[in-house]
Amino acid sequence: MDITDKLPSAEQLIFNHTQNTQKEKQENIKHLLFGWIQDSYDKLFLLIFLVALIIRILVYLKTNDQVLWWDAADYMASAKRWAGINPNLIDMWYYRRGFLWALIGTLFFAIGIGEIGMRILVVLLSTGIVFVSYFLISEMFNKKLALLTSLGITLSWVFLFFTGRLLTEIPATFFLLTSLIFFWKGYMKNQGIKYFILFGIFAALTVLTRMQYLMFVIPILLLALVREKHKIFVNKKLWISIIIFLIILIPHFILYNKHFGNPILDLTNYYLGIEGVSKTGEVGVELAKTSDLFLYINNLPYILDANQKGYSSLFVISPIYLLFIIGFFLFFIDLFLGFDKIFSNDTIQKKFFILSFIVLSFLFLGYMAPQLEQRYIMPVIPFLFFIAVYPFYYITGFLKEKINPKTIAIVFLIIFLIILIPNYKFGFSLIESKKLSYMEVKQAGLWIKENSNLEDIIIGSGLPQLTYYSERSVYPFELAYRRDLAKGNESDLDKFILEKRPKYLVVSAYEREEPWAFAYPQKHPDLLVPVQAYPNVQQPVVIVYQFDYDNIKSLK
Question: Is 480 inside any structural domain?
């Protein structure tokens, strides 16, 4: 027999190669998706992760057709303009904002998936926060604490509610926490230069999404200073992170400088209230009263579990908040008693970082945003839950000799799950109660879109929402369609109408306007004819007026 008879044919060789390639690809995909699963804790977390995803899909199903709120509509209206949906739209973009979120929206509108695509992305990023929080706490401490922390984030009413909103806090929080993982791997554990590179990239994405998150540079800098003191300034790897961070931010710096001058000076002026250092001189935030600094600290019970009543009394204090108080003292006692070791002890340094991350964030927010918005504090929430679950971990130290640690972890997971159920229920009840808010504004905007041309101009309240839904240029009564523009008055509006000849005027009871703005249609009854009214229960809350230019003389 010829030996060639035993050799595989060319077809067989090609088939075998294809099969091997497919198997290799499948193995690579499997490793990518599940290669991180190494023990029972990871398996338990995978279950929590899947629960987090399912819950957020439920949020999406409940909210996919709800009306965009002011800021979300602002981002998405800009996205529509940049995507070329209506080239006549005015430039509403506020250049003190990071533009990444609106830019992502632009891409989605350009390829035809628009708002739905953005809502799905928020679901994925909100679930991703659970994922990266688990790995961050695992890197910093251990998987037991990470597991319990991830459960808290999974059922946090703050994350659940804002998963249904197209705002910047969820994507910015995801980028920030991811950057902290890479910072920890690169700087704290010295695992390679690639982590410094990734840290710089994700830190830049964080700021490009939400500029206010620059404040989180301070606790990172403080940690580096206590570890290295002055040597931090000659750390070449950190400089690589900084350079990458700055390079990615260059487009934003250019845009910012064009409108407001030097970004550093303007931010100092605007957010810190230090006057006279920027070309605009505009002060955006001013502390009304010292107590505002502690606004977010005082509202920790509400942030953790929405318990607005009774938390001032120890006898009716909520379980999560009680756990947080106990955990705070148990976790930070080493820091308070051993502060003299801060320059040499890794454990003390980690605790110092978390304390500074939480406290400085709260104080900055109390200064910059003295109106309670739980979404502002999202990046801190994983560490809040970490502290709240720490008593469970502390107890395991006394029980591990008698009970299997895995059994203890499961028992504590169940206990914590039961404690978190009211949190979950409150989140969904809040979603339900706010589901129809601003619906009348949306209806008015869609009606205007159907009954106007692309070049038509609208005057009205609810600027970004009307712009988004009508896809028309909408000017507010005071004509300041961006926050950096000077506001006009009634006579300025009269001149604008004479010159630009807008088609519709919209009055919304949802918005705070000057008395003259609400009275404007009554002052010009011949010029402004009501054509649409949208009631809430029985009372109209949004009214659309059409201009009748045959009676334009009423303005002269």
Answer: yes
Which DSSP letter does residue 5 get?
Answer: G
- Give residue 311's pLDDT: 46
Q: Does 86 map to a domain?
A: no
Q: Please report whether residue 549 resides in a domain.
A: yes
Under 8 Å CB-to-CB from 251, ≥6 apart: which residues? Answer: none
- What number of residues does the chain have? 556
pLDDT of residue 332: 95
Please report where in the chains the tokens 């209506």 appear, as a residue.
86
Helix (H) or strand (E) holding 529: strand 528-536
Number of folded domains that form the chain: 1
Closest CA to 70 of 91, 89, 85, 92: 92
d(CA 81, CA 65): 21
Q: Give the pLDDT score at 554.
A: 64
Q: How far apart are CA 107 and CA 99, in angstroms?
A: 13
What was the pLDDT predicted at 142? 92
Rounded CA separation 113/79 (Å)? 12
Cβ(415)–Cβ(503) below 8 Å: no
User: If you search the block for the tokens 């009304």, which residue do you land on?
Assistant: 288
Residue 497 sits in a domain whose CATH number is: 3.40.190
R_g of the chain computed on alpha carbons? 28
pTM: 0.91
Q: How many CA atoms within 13 Å lie on the side-chain side of 141?
A: 24
pLDDT of residue 57: 97
Structural domain for 531, as ranges: 439-555
The H-or-E segment that residue 537 falls in is none
Give the DSSP H/E element, type plus range, for residue 540. strand 539-547
Residues of the chain with pLDDT under 50: 310-315
Please answer whether residues 511 and 437 qualify as being in contact, where contact means their C-beta atoms are separated by less than 8 angstroms: no
The phi-psi region of residue 90 (left if phi > 0; otherwise alpha if psi is between -120 and 50; otherwise beta) is beta
35-to-29, 38, 42, 178, 381 alpha-carbon distances in Å? 9, 7, 10, 18, 28
485 in a structural domain: yes
Alpha helices for 261-337 (secondary structure H): 263-272, 295-298, 300-305, 319-337
